[in-house]
Design a protein that fits this description.
The structure is a single chain. With 396 residues, this protein is mostly helical. The protein has one domain: Cytochrome c oxidase-like, subunit I domain (Cytochrome C Oxidase, Chain A), CATH 1.20.210. Helix 7 packs antiparallel against helix 8, helix 8 packs antiparallel against helix 9 and helix 9 runs antiparallel to helix 11. The protein is globular. InterPro entries: NnrS.
């Protein structure tokens, strides 16, 4: 049953990872606050946290979504669930090996785990290639999504190089590619494609608005910011960051965020997307202030993007796809809506941790515990669905 549809195994693994990879990180945060002794890390813990989140949590959801949705974008038949088996086995086994390598502190095992993750990544990308580049149908959304996956493979190669050689430049390249050439483009592509579509089906007299130039601009901003970040020059990206903020906030307005609040399962997507404009705005302000010699905000912009945008959009989109593809009504119940709102609180708390230095450690711990408090019940709600037949008796 797990392989009855491609989203099932990918979403299941991603959901488990939202908790599994954050438990040791919360342990680390509690240790920093002096509450208890911390775990031993063979690498700087912040780098492991970034690697886990960027390549070990969100991509499972991305692969599950794209293997489900991209064929429909291209007018092709649905993907059989078995197509996800080999990529999924490689991805899951690779991350388990990596986790064991962290415990025993063996660089070779860490590299081997990441290499297996890369193999699963390549298998999934190979499956999606003829879908994205279907003759006569190679549109902006599928092509941009596939290119982002290709960039992610390069980012994994950088992490493997770091595991084998220990060069911090390789780690910086891996993080920068993952943030700016992988996840940000993917989430923008999916939001640009799906939010107007879902809004038109849920709101009366709604005219879908989806200009390609806006997505191209946002993609260009992300690619340029990523290139500068790899060169340790991200502070110089502030003019394009502010352009990206303006475009993203304008799209939120054009997509009628306020009207979406009447439909919680739709509002979850709109509220998640709004964080993109906030994140770009914070990046732009941070870079502009650095030009004048003022260094502030720390990692607040980064977490506005990762927790505020990636995480809230993931909870919203995965909840929606899970309901729709399990034959359940497309309605966010009270628990799901409360968890979605609470996750915005977690994101705000993490951002404020770098805005209010006096409360930094306390707010970090609260944000970490809040993450587990949100995703724990969410995972418990979703996991049984992936192991049961559809409620409406249909296949998939």
């Amino acid at each position: 049953m797990l392989f009855a549809a491609p989203h099932r195994p990918m979403f299941l693994a991603g959901a488990i990872q939202t908790v599994l990879t954050f438990v040791p990180w919360v342990w680390e945060l509690l240790a920093r606050s002096g509450a208890l002794a911390g775990p031993a890390w063979p690498w700087p813990p912040g780098w492991v946290h970034g690697l886990w989140a960027i390549y070990g949590v969100f991509p499972f959801f991305v692969f599950g979504f794209l293997m489900t949705a991209m064929p429909r974008w291209q007018g092709m038949a649905d993907t059989p669930g078995g197509a996800a088996r080999r990529p999924w086995l490689c991805l899951v086994t690779g991350w388990l090996l990596f986790d064991v390598g962290l415990v025993v502190a063996l660089p070779g095992l860490l590299a081997a785990g990441l290499a297996l993750v890369l193999a699963g990544w390549a298998l999934a990308a190979r499956f999606l290639f003829p879908v994205a580049f279907k003759p006569g149908k190679a549109g902006l959304h599928p092509v941009a999504a596939w290119c982002a996956l290709g960039a992610g493979a390069v980012g994994l190669l950088a992490w493997i190089a770091f595991a084998l050689g220990g060069n911090p430049l390789a780690a910086r390249i891996g993080v920068s590619i993952g943030m700016w050439w992988l996840l940000t483009p993917l989430f923008m592509v999916v939001g640009h494609r799906m939010i107007p579509f879902f809004s038109a089906s849920a709101l009366p007299r709604y005219e879908a608005f989806r200009p390609d130039w806006a997505l191209r601009l946002l993609l260009g901003v992300s690619v340029l910011h990523g290139a500068l970040a790899m060169a340790d020059l991200a502070r110089l990206a502030w003019p394009v960051d502010l352009a990206g903020a303006t475009c993203a906030l304008w799209l939120s307005w054009k997509w009628q965020l306020r009207r979406s609040l009447a439909v919680p399962i739709l509002a979850m997507l709109h509220l998640g997307f709004a964080w993109l404009g906030v994140a770009w705005l914070l990046f732009g302000l941070q870079g502009l202030l650095q030009v004048t010699g003022i260094h502030t905000l720390g990692l607040a912009p980064l977490h506005a993007l990762s927790v505020g945008y990636f995480a809230t959009m993931t909870l919203a989109m995965v909840s929606r796809v899970t309901l729709g593809h399990s034959g359940r009504p497309l309605v966010a119940d009270g628990l799901t809506w409360r968890l979605a709102l609470a996750l915005h609180g977690v994101a705000l708390t993490r951002v404020l941790a770098d805005v209010l230095p006096a409360a930094h450690d306390t707010l970090l711990v609260l944000a970490g515990l809040g993450w587990l408090a949100v995703f724990g019940p969410w995972v418990a709600r979703l996991l049984p669905i992936y192991l049961k037949p559809r409620a409406d008796g249909r296949p998939g």
